[in-house]
Structure formats: structure tokens, C-alpha cells
Please model this.
Amino acid sequence: MTRSEHPTSACCTPRDLLRSGRWLPIGASAGPTAGFVIGILITQLASAADLGLSEAARITAEPILVLAIGLSAVLGPSSVEAAINRHNGDARRNSRRFTLGLGIVAMLYFATLSLPEATIPLRVVMPRAFVLPGSPN
Model:
């Protein structure tokens, strides 16, 4: 099909696109705004040290979220196709792949984080990051 044979779309003018996308900045800023507000609440209700510990936990768990997003990107199109075509077997197989992949990697990641402190490579590079307030180190 040549370029001249493609149908042109007269339904979407730049003004229509701007009008329909008006909600995008609000939606994109909702997550960071919620994180900021929660940070303020933790600091006020507990302490800045507790906020630091919760941030450390969030950052430590980040690779699992990244893996889940990556698996969704890979398995998502075939899951949508299975849903459109009402292929329950394919949908279950994709769901099982996602759950097993994420579960196995999460268990390996947890096992790695559960190693004794002396075996954590980042402790050698950034020793002060592993010192808690009030600890003997």
C-alpha cells in the first residue's frame, strides 16, 4: 500500500488532541505528588529516620517492579490478543508465565538480600549507607 492509498483521518485536529489530552499532566503528576505527601506525613507522624528507612525499602524493592513492568511489556500483547480472541488457554498460559517468572526472580532477589551483611558488595563501596542511627558502627 502506497502512501497515497492510506486513508487520512480528519477526526483529529491539533485542537482536538490538546482538548482530549488535557488530563494527562494531572494523571502523570498524581504518583509523584502522592509520594511527596506521604513523605511529609511519615516525617510528621514518625521521624525523618523512619522516612529514610521506608525510602530504602522502596528503593530495594524497585527491581521487582521493573521486572514486573518488563514482563508485562513482553507478555501483554499476547495476553490482549488471547482476550480478544477468547482463547482462555493462551490467557492462562501467559498469566502463569508472568506469575512464575516474577515469583522465581523475586525469591532469588530476596535470597540475595538475605545474605549476611558482609557479603553485600554495596557495603564495601558505600559503608555509611548501611549504618543505622544509634547502632554501634
In short: The CA atoms of residues 120 and 126 lie 10 Å apart.
